[in-house]
Amino acid sequence: MEWLMNWNENYSLTILFFGLAVCFFGVIIYLFLNYKRLLDKVKNKVELESELLNKNMQIENFSKELANQIEYEIAQRLKSDYAYDYLFENSSNAIILTQDEDLKIIKRNHAAFDLFGKEILNHNILELFSDKAHKKFVFEKIAQLKQSKLRQNFRLNLCISDSVIPVIISIYLMGFAQKITIYFAFVDISDIAKLEEELQNKQIALMQKNKEEAMGKMIGNIAHQWKQPLNSLYLLCQNLKEMNQLGELNKENLENYIQIMAKQIHFMSNTMDTFREFYNPSKNKEWFEVYSTIKEMLDLFYGLVDKRIHIKMRPCKVKKQLKIYSSKNELQQVMIVCLDNAIEAIKARLKNEVIKEGKICIECAMEQNIAGAKFCVIRVQDNGGGIHTEIANKVFEAFFTTKENGSGMGLAMAQMILDKMGGRILFVNEKEGVEFKIELPMQTEVGIKTSKEN
Q1: CB under 8 A, 24+ apart: contacts of 363-369
Q2: Measured between alpha carbons, how far is 327 from 298 in angstroms, rounded to an integer?
């Protein structure tokens, strides 16, 4: 019995210790879990604070970069505005800004004030042009600018006070003070215009020199052509005197002699008229036959050429239809240049005994291009040896010459005349010499009338 009681007592103690052990372990586990949870919270808090710190640092760095960028852009803008204002105010060209809507001037530089000689702010840009035609022209250019949004450049003569100033005006759209404005730039080209005038005067002087040389040739031809008619007139006068002395002069013989003398005088008068027409040419355009015009020029200028040089003009089947509307005298000038060059080249070969005789052949024809347009084509062929390939690209340049006393304006002047006539000149080397080809557009009378009406 005592044993049983001891066992029960031991069993109770065991259960008590076991319960205490379980409670102890439960407390330890609870404390461990709470500690771990606390550690996690602390860790999360630390990570969050670290993340916030990193973000704050990133924001601070970004703010610094943004501040630096803004500071840089402001500095660049100030620098750009300073450069713009400096260039605008110190430009040698007159610059004007106007409003897009009413064309009122809102800004101008010192050069613009100097050009127009007065204050032009708040004025309409068109008021600067005194000529009505100029106002209309500038207004049309502004309209074209607004429609196309492309820069417009044009040349104009500004009438300011009592002086005329040639300028090139450039206009385009630009932004200014958060508005669309029109930018006007006036470039004074008085020096260029003066040089152009001097060059034109030189060209006129050279053309006059060539004309005087041609006139000398023509006077020699006139003297040659007048020699025979004058001899005939002298003989006719002698015959009339003898017939009168012998009593053989009757009314019929007198009338016959008068008709013969009249024909001779008419021939001489026509020669002088042609001479006067060439020396004082008319710049007015007219319809004329190309073949007959060249033939007339050959009779006047090239009747007395070196006996060893033969100038031949081939027959033209369409010479009546081969008409152009242009200046007859200018075409003759071009032909004289081509023939004189051919003759000089042939004379050089004759002198060096390279050839025994010179040949120049002229041909007129009507040709048609791919588009169906008709052209009058004149070919001048010679056996003068051709043009060297080294200078082939320079023969039409002004003042370029291979002659000792040449002016270098012959072919350049011919090309300039043909450009004005709407034609062109080119050449090709052949076996014995060179062929110059002149192309002139052929127009119908209807087309000429229409262009005049327009």
Answers
A1: 363/313, 363/314, 363/316, 364/290, 364/291, 364/294, 364/314, 364/316, 364/319, 364/322, 365/316, 365/318, 365/322, 366/318, 366/321, 366/322, 366/442
A2: 17
Decide: 379 and 435 in contact? Cβ < 8 Å. yes
- DSSP codes of every residue in 392-439: TTTTTSTT---STT--S-HHHHHHHHHHHHT-EEEEEE-SSSEEEEEE
Which among 383, 286, 392, 290 has a CA at the least distance from the CA of 332?
290
Please report, in angstroms and rounded to a whole number, the separation of the first and last CA atoms in the chain: 151
Give the global pTM: 0.47
- Judged by phi (left if over 0) then psi (alpha if -120 to 50, else beta), residue 423 lies in beta
Q: Check residue 195 and give its pLDDT.
A: 85
- 115 Cβ partners below 8 Å, 6+ apart? 94, 158, 160, 165, 186, 188
- 3-state SS, residue 95: strand
Q: Give 302-329 pLDDT, tens digit per residue.
A: 765 677 889 999 998 888 889 998 888 7
Tally of CB atoms within 10 A around 60: 10
Q: Please give the Cα distance from 114 to 442 (Å, whole number).
A: 51
Of 120, 124, 119, nearest in space to 139 by CA: 124
The answer on pLDDT for 247 being more than 70 is yes
pLDDT band, residue 443 (cuts 50/70/90): confident
Find out whether 402 and 390 touch, Cβ atoms under 8 Å: no
